[in-house]
Design brief:
elongated, 2 domains, disordered N terminus, alpha+beta
Length: about 120
């Protein structure tokens, strides 16, 4: 993982969250594609209300302000830090070091102390 010195320093007010609707029925109607009645007939209107529901911009900003890329390089640094703390771990697997296996590059952050990973 990158050190604090290598990370960009942004303030909450510097970020703008682009909020979009997953299914924009108003735009579809405007362009001649009124499919609302089909979904209402299936009684799934509440699903789309939930899907298009509120975007908690403060949480989105909180996530991205603390986000970091966890890639193969960050994985190796994590292993190296473990070995510096406990040299007996030299040459052992990630699992033997008590680390999760590296699968793929992820974006890592946390919201209110809860770790969040996007891969």
């Amino acid at each position: 993982m990158k050190s604090k010195e290598e990370q960009c320093l942004w303030r909450n007010r510097d970020l703008t969250v682009q909020v979009e609707r997953h299914v924009d029925f108003t735009s579809l109607i405007k362009h001649g594609c009124d499919i609302v009645e089909f979904y209402e007939a299936q009684d799934v209107g509440s699903y789309f209300s939930m899907l298009n529901g509120p975007t908690y911009e403060s949480l989105v900003k909180h996530f991205w302000l603390r986000a970091s890329v966890y890639d193969k390089h960050a994985s190796k640094l994590e292993e190296d830090q473990k070995v510096l703390i406990d040299p007996s771990l030299e040459g052992k697997s990630r699992q033997e070091m008590g680390l999760e296996p590296f699968v793929d590059t992820e974006i890592r952050s946390s919201i209110m102390g809860v770790p969040i990973f996007i891969n």
